[in-house]
Amino acid sequence: MAAAAPEAWPELELAERERRRELLLTGPGLEQRVARGGRAAAAAALHAAAVHYLEVSGCGSLREPGPGLAQGLRSAHLVLRRNALGPGLSPELGPLPALRVLDLSGNALEALPPGQGLGPAEPPGLPQLQSLNLSGNRLRELPADLALCAPRLQTLNLTGNCLDSFPAALFRPGALPLLSELAAADNRLRELSPDISHLASLKTLDLSNNQLSEIPAELADCPKLKEINFRGNRLRDKRLEKMVSGCQTRSILEYLRAGGRGGGRGRGRAEGADKEEGRRKRRERRKQESSEGEEAAVDEASRLLLRVLHVSENPAPLMVRVSPEVKDVRPFIVGAVVRGMDLRPGNALKQFLSSQTKLHEDLCEKRTAATIATHDLRAIIPLGRREVKAKDLVRQLQLEAEEHRKQKKRQNVSGLHRYLHLLDGKENYPCLVDAEGDVISFPPITNSEKTKIKKTTCDLFLEVTSATSLQICKDIMDTLILKMAEINKYTSENKEEGSLSDPEADAVSGQLSGPRATPGAESDGSPPLVVEQVRVVDEEGHLKVVYPSKTDLDIAAHVTVIR
């Protein structure tokens, strides 16, 4: 009896025919096909997906990715969240030499031993991996060779597992030199190794709601650490326990550095450490006073100034309210208001729009990691279209894209229409509306035609949204505001030279970051940009995030932030 032909996957055929870079497989249809075809169906789908972004999610019948994945998958982003993968990965996932983002959250993984894990350690199975999300599983331990398998890891999310410790190899010197964000909240961690100080790039650490009794004093030796969260741990040092519940990160690290009883350097060293710290500060102050005269002229010429307006100081602060429906579509957003931008001289507007385009191509990874939207604050009104339902708007954009392609006699669509496939398979679409209910932004596709930035725009509302992480939103917003400050200073110093030529505009990004020998530029009428804090809250008014916080905008040595 002849074997039945494999079931067709129309999504794969469409993606191949239209040469799409992203593919999303989810919903009841996927569940039924995987249930009927089992392991072979899932393996065939993953093997055939020659795309940049592949997501297979929400399938309770998908328990393993199947064989042949490494040979067929060419994605830089692989999302396998909210399936039933586990208790291990058989066969192991790697090697995947091009993979940069891997999301295995919300599965049933219990362990990732050799042969049933992420990939081989030598040579590295995931040599380019930057972001790994293992949250919401049942992991009891991490693979000891994780750092060898993924040596370029920058973000590691382990929230909501059953871990009681980290493998020692994770914190060995030089193991993960690029790791900047480590989240392992809601586990069973009993201790944190002093060797965590070897994570030289660590900026954010979340170990809340574990079973830690001590915080190692060596944590204060992490040179870039800006944000920590140890709430929900029963610490032996009761003063430290109170501090982690209400004090800023800097205060906590200073307490540990001074020999507080947080982690083993001893209470007896506190007094001596305090005295030494005082002497060090006095030496630095004298050194600074002796050299500031020599450096004043250079600093004045090269410094970029940003002034942060706190919510409490703002008589009319802007607030973004997030509805719960957006959680499964685009859960992360940060916003900011920037006042004082001067886009009138020369090619300043062109430079600003060009920098936004470059950010979308690079840091935003062609809008798959995040999307930027910029608005004229004084003209926040609806999209330049009649009011329609979300699905109708998507359909309208698709028709426009096809018509535009035919008119231009092109094989593929261009402009904003080339991002429409990012919404394929979505039941809900993210959008930003103002207080009157008018849509001003439709990420990752477009924002309001009438709120677009013009030469006369001086006050802007900025938003960055992401389906990946909040830190990505913050990093991209930091970079965008830095670019705006550089453009504002550059154009201000070159007003007298008239309009910049196009070649100058193209080369300006290479000139902006260096100091300029124009003494007195600040005093000649180049005031700092004002960055107003914007709060993001849920429907009950509970704060989700405020930007910029005290740890944000720490972006470059030549930038001074007045808070």
Structure characteristics:
563 residues, alpha/beta, Leucine-rich repeat, LRR (right-handed beta-alpha superhelix), Phenylalanyl-tRNA Synthetase, Chain B, domain 3, eight-stranded mixed sheet, 20 strands, globular, disordered N terminus
The low-pLDDT segments are 1-5, 261-273, 290-301, 382-389, 412-422, 496-524
Mean pLDDT: 75
Count of distinct structural domains: 2
Strand content: 15-25%
What is the CATH superfamily label of the largest domain? Ribonuclease Inhibitor
Largest sheet: 9 strands, parallel
Helix content class: 25-40%
What is the approximate shape?
A: globular
Tally of strands: 20
The level 1 CATH classification of the largest domain is: Alpha Beta
Counted by DSSP, the helix tally is: 11
Distance between the termini: 77 Å
- Rounded radius of gyration (Å): 26 Å
Within the CATH hierarchy, at the fold level, what is the topology of the largest domain? Leucine-rich repeat, LRR (right-handed beta-alpha superhelix)
Structural class: alpha/beta
Spatial arrangement of strands, main beta sheet: 1-2-3-4-5-6-7-8-9
> In the CATH classification, which architecture of the largest domain applies?
Alpha-Beta Horseshoe
Task: Explain what this protein looks like in three dimensions.
By secondary structure, the protein is an alpha/beta fold. It folds into 2 domains: 10-113 and 121-258, Ribonuclease Inhibitor (Leucine-rich repeat, LRR (right-handed beta-alpha superhelix)); 304-395 and 430-493 and 526-561, Phenylalanyl-tRNA Synthetase, Chain B, domain 3 (3-Layer(bba) Sandwich), CATH 3.50.40. Helix content is 28%, strand content 15%. It is built from 11 helices and 20 strands. The chain has helices at 10-17, 28-48, 69-72, 146-149, 238-246, 249-257, 270-302, 348-361, 390-408, 470-493, 502-512; strands at residues 22-25, 53-56, 77-79, 101-103, 131-133, 155-157, 181-183, 204-206, 227-229, 304-309, 319-321, 332-339, 371-376, 432-433, 439-442, 446-447, 459-466, 529-537, 543-547, 559-562. α2 (28-48) links the parallel β1 (22-25) and β2 (53-56). α8 runs antiparallel to α10 (470-493) and α8 (348-361) crosses α11 (502-512). Keywords: Coiled coil, Leucine-rich repeat, Repeat.
